[in-house]
Specification:
By secondary structure, this protein is mostly helical. The chain is built from 8 helices and 9 strands. It has a 3-stranded antiparallel beta sheet with strand order 3-4-5. Strands 1-2 form a two-stranded antiparallel sheet. The chain is globular, with a radius of gyration of 23 Å. Bound molecules: flavin-adenine dinucleotide.
């Protein structure tokens, strides 16, 4: 991702594939220290190398050097990236593009079978929310297409089959009681919700990033308890809003990520705990 004035936009990995080189802010190449394939190493290795260099130098980003690339080809292959950089005041043909690795997918946690059936009867999951088993140590470009298309199709076929085989009584759904807001108050200080969300996001980025350690995971768990207690308190007296629901869900997901990272006994991909072999 490019990081210009705090704003992030995606610089496709294909740019590296076409010959762009990574350099520190000072202009030094570094990928050779991490992998003999250098810039063409797999995405987890490149992301970790950038993270390591940023930690060594204290810089907030590294540079992607496209200067030696064929300019005509670059414009032909990456017109949007070129335009976006120019709009932000960066000329990729004369300057380094500031980049950082960023999270742009999850490998979800809902266990499903090949039809997308979860462990709850008749509840199906498809796509990023699921642990479909399709991904190896890392996701590759367009893994999500396979996940959405194949599992979406399978889940639809299975649902139609179940509907034909069973007599569902959709009136049963009406038996679900309405949400009860009695005794709840309108949240009149939404700033608390946005403050807690920022705290949670910052804590997860700083302590539970690409490269993790036992010490930082323990710190994250402690900080999480503080945030979760505050969220819980608000949740129990406030009328529900999308912002509050999202914050509560983010808090739950963060807890699962931290605790399951702590339970891992080996590095299998997606993230790397430097205290594990
Ligand atoms: C920049 C970028 C690069 C990526 N690169 C890769 C890659 O290289 N490889 C890869 O495998 N993946 C990649 N991904 C991830 C991939 O795009 C996602 O995994 C995939 O699009 C998820 O599809 P989905 O259908 O599961 O979820 P989504 O596309 O997020 O669809 C969920 C839908 O549900 C709707 N929704 C949400 N809440 C509610 C609600 N309460 N009620 C009703 N509807 C709701 C949303 O509006 C949305 O339409 C990338 C993502 C980004 C942003």
């Amino acid at each position: 991702y490019s990081k210009i004035d705090g704003m992030l936009f995606l610089i496709s990995e294909a740019v590296r594939g076409d010959g762009a080189k990574l350099r520190t802010k000072k202009g030094e190449k570094f990928m050779h220290k991490y992998d003999e394939r250098e810039e063409l190493a797999s995405r987890d290795i490149v992301a970790r190398a950038i993270d390591a260099e940023m930690k060594i130098t204290g810089d907030e980003y590294v540079g992607l050097d496209c200067r030696a690339m064929n300019h005509e080809k670059f414009l032909e292959h990456f017109p949007n990236i070129y335009k976006k950089c120019k709009d932000e005041g960066i000329d990729p043909f004369t300057q380094l593009i500031p980049v950082v690795p960023a999270c742009h997918y999850l490998m979800g946690g809902i266990e499903v079978d090949r039809d997308g059936q979860s462990s709850i009867r008749n509840l199906f999951g498809v796509g990023e929310c699921t642990n479909s088993g399709l991904h190896g140590a890392n996701r590759l470009a367009s893994n999500s297409l396979l996940e959405g298309l194949v599992f979406g199709h399978n889940a639809a076929m299975k649902t139609v089959k179940l509907l034909n085989e069973n007599n569902f009584n959709f009136d049963d759904l009406k038996a679900v009681p309405e949400w009860n807001e009695e005794g709840m108050k309108i949240m009149d200080e939404m700033v608390i919700v946005s403050y807690l969300r920022k705290q949670l996001q910052e804590m997860m980025s700083d302590l539970v990033g690409i490269v993790r350690s036992n010490r930082r995971l323990n710190m994250a768990l402690q900080k999480h308890q503080e945030i979760a207690a505050a969220v819980d308190e608000i949740y129990h007296y406030s009328i529900l809003s999308p912002q509050l629901s999202e914050l509560r869900n983010l808090t739950t997901v963060a807890h699962l990520i931290i605790t399951q990272s702590m339970e891992m006994t080996q590095n299998k991909g997606a993230f790397y705990n430097k205290d594990l072999v």
